[in-house]
Known about the structure:
The complex is a heterodimer. By secondary structure, chain A is mainly beta. Chain A has one domain (19-290). Chain A contains 2 helices and 18 strands. In chain A, the strands form 3 sheets. A 9-stranded mixed sheet of chain A has the order 3-4-6-9-12-15-18-17-16. Chain A has a 7-stranded mixed sheet with strand order 2-1-5-8-11-13-14, with no helix packed on it. In chain A, β13 (180-188) and β14 (194-202) form a beta hairpin. The two termini of chain A are 36 Å apart. Chain B is mostly helical. Chain B has one domain: Urease accessory protein UreF. Chain B contains 13 helices and no strands. Chain B: Pfam families: UreF (PF01730). Chain B: Its main location: cytoplasm.
Amino acid sequence: MISGARELRAYQDEPPQLPSGSFGKNAYLRLGFEPGAHRTVLRTLHRRAPLIVQQALYWDEEMPGLPCVSIISNAGGILQGDRNVIEIDLQADAQAHVTTQSATRIQEMDANYASQTQLLTLGPGSYLEYIPRPIIPHRNSRFIQTTKIDIDPTATLIYSEIMMPGRKYYRDGEIFEYELFSSTVTAGRPSGESLFTEKFVLRPKLDRLHALGAMGDFHVFGNVVVVTPKANADQLFEANTPVFDRENGIAHGVSRLPHDAGLVFKVLAMESAPVMETIRAFWSEVRQVVVGPRVPDNFLWA
Amino acid sequence: MAMSTTMTTTMGIERPSGRTLPELLYLLQFGDSALPVGGFSFSNGLESAIQEGLVDGPATLRAYTETSMWQAATGDGVAVICAHRAAQAGDIDALKHIDRLVFERKLNEETRLMTVRMGRKLCELSSVIIADGATRDWFERIKSGDTPGTHPVSLAITLAALGANRQDAFGVHQYGVATAVLSAALRLMRISFVDTQKILLDVTAQVAPAYARVTDATIDEMASFAPMIDILAAVHVKGHVRMFMN
C-alpha cells in the first residue's frame, strides 16, 4: 500500500481544501486495447475526472493502425490529496501509444501528499508505448508513484519518465526545491515471476541530489524502461553507444535489466528538450527493432 | 582527542567497548579490503568517472566515495540489516527473498556480476574458515542455483555466524564500499595514500547517521538514485580501454 510508505509519514495531515482521495481527487483511468479487424481499438474506457481521455486517434503516419491516446487533466496538474490510478491493459497482439497532453505539474503543497498508481498489463505479442511528457515537481510538493508492470514474455513495453528539477525558469528558478519524489517501478510475468524493481526516494532538502554520481551538475533526468524479448534487447544493446558529453551537457547510456527482461536507458541533460529528443531517437530504435516502422518526426507544434 | 582525554582522566582504567577482542578482530578481518572476495577487480564506475574527468583529485574523489556509500546505505545496506535479522532467526525463506530482491535491483550487468561474484566468493570462504551450518548451507544453495548469492546477504550471514550485531554488519559493509572505491582510485589516478586515508577517515564518520536513517527499514524500502553512476557504468561496459572488470 502506497499510503503506508515510510516516506509519507510526515505528510498525513489533511488538506484544508477537499479531503484527500475524495470526489475530484480520486482520478481513475482504465484503458483497454484489443485488436480489431484492421487496427487495434480502445475497447474499454473508464474515466473519472480530473483525468480524462476522449478517444483514440490514429495520428501516427508510420503506424496508421496504432491507436494514440492522450491523457488530459482538467485540474491543472496534480494537487495535494490527489490519489490517481491509471490502468492500461493490452490484450494479445494489441498495439497502443499513450502519452499526456502536456507536462504533468505537481503543484506546490502545504498539507498531505499526492499519489499515482499505474498498472500496465501486456498480453502475448502486444506492444505498448507509454511516453508521458515531463513531470515538474513544484516547490514543497510531495509525490509518490508506483508503476506495476505485468508483461507476457512475448510482449514489448517502452515506458519513459522525464523528471524536471522544478519550475526552472519561474521567478529565481526552482531547482530541486520539492520535498519528496518517490518512484517505484516493478515488473513481473503473468506467472507471478518477478523481473526487476527500480525504486528511488528523492528528498532534496535532506539529501544532496547535486552530488557527484547522483545528478551532478545536471537538471533533467530521463528514464526509459524497455521490457522486451531477449533477441530484441540484444540487438538494441549492441546498436547503442553510451555518451558522456560534458561540453554539450548530455549523458546517456543503456544497461541490461536482470533476468534478460530488457533494457533501461538513462539520460541526463540541462533542459527537457535534449532529453526528449534523445528519448525519441531511442524510442524509434526500439520501434524499428520490435515492430519495423520508425517513429515519425515530432509535430511542429509539440 | 576525546579518547585520549578519557584515558588520562580515568588514570588508565579502560571504558569497556562491549565487544570481546575476538569479535573486534573478526570485524577487522571481514572488513579488510584484502579479503580475497574479488572486490578489488571492480571500480563502481570510478574508472569511467576518471576517464571522463569527473573525478580528478581529492575533493571529487571524496564526493564520489560519499555518493557510493550513500547509495549502498539505502540499498544494499538495508539488505545487510534485513538479512542479518533473518540469519539470526534462521529464516531461509526470508534470506532467499532478500537475495532475489537485491539481485533484481541491480539494473546493469556490472553491478549484478559484482554482487553475485563477491557474494559467492565470500560465502565460499566463510563456509570453509568459519565452517558453521548457516554459511555452509547458504553456499550449497548458491552453488546449486537455488539463490543468486548477492554480496550483502552473504556478508550478513557470515557476520551473523561470527556473532557480530546488525550495526557492526552495516558498518563493515559501508567500510567495504569506501575502501573498494578508494583502492581503485589509487590504481587509476594520481593520488596519494595520505589523501585516500584522509578521505576514508572523513567518510566513515558519516556511517553512524546513515545507519540511524535505515536501521528499521524493511527490505521493500531499498532505494537508490545515482543516474550519473548508472550512465558511467553503461559507458564502462562498452569501453574499450579499461583496467577493471565489468
